[in-house]
Amino acid sequence: MQLFDDDDFMMTTPKENFFQIIKSANENIVELELEKLVERLAIAEKILEENGLEEQYEKAVVSLPATSPEEIENRKNSIFIETVGQIVSKCE
Fold first, then answer.
1. pTM for the complete prediction?
2. pLDDT in tens, 44-81
3. Angle between helices 69-91 and 54-67 (to 10 degrees)
4. Domain definitions of the chain by residue range
5. What is the 3-state secondary structure (H, E, C) of the chain?
6. Is 4 left (phi over 0), alpha (psi -120 to 50) or beta?
């Protein structure tokens, strides 16, 4: 099952590919992968809480996009790419 044209893939951003894929892939697979992302976030937040780092985290959420926008964008793109890979591999 081909979810997108190879030429389109090379002309779009990881974010654009992510949203294109989640709109056209099997809904159950997309839901499972999005749930995994939310679970990872919940686990990360729990670890931060257990280590008394909630306040530092909240400050970083505000400051890092402004002070390290390229690094944050690269990390977001990595997550988009990884998630699309998981979805596409399960749709084949």
1. 0.81
2. 999 999 999 999 999 999 999 999 999 999 999 999 99
3. 100
4. 26-91
5. CCCCCHHHHHHCCHHHHHHHHHHHCCHHHHHHHHHHHHHHHHHHHHHHHHCCCHHHHHHHHHHHHHHCHHHHHHHHHHHHHHHHHHHHHHHC
6. beta
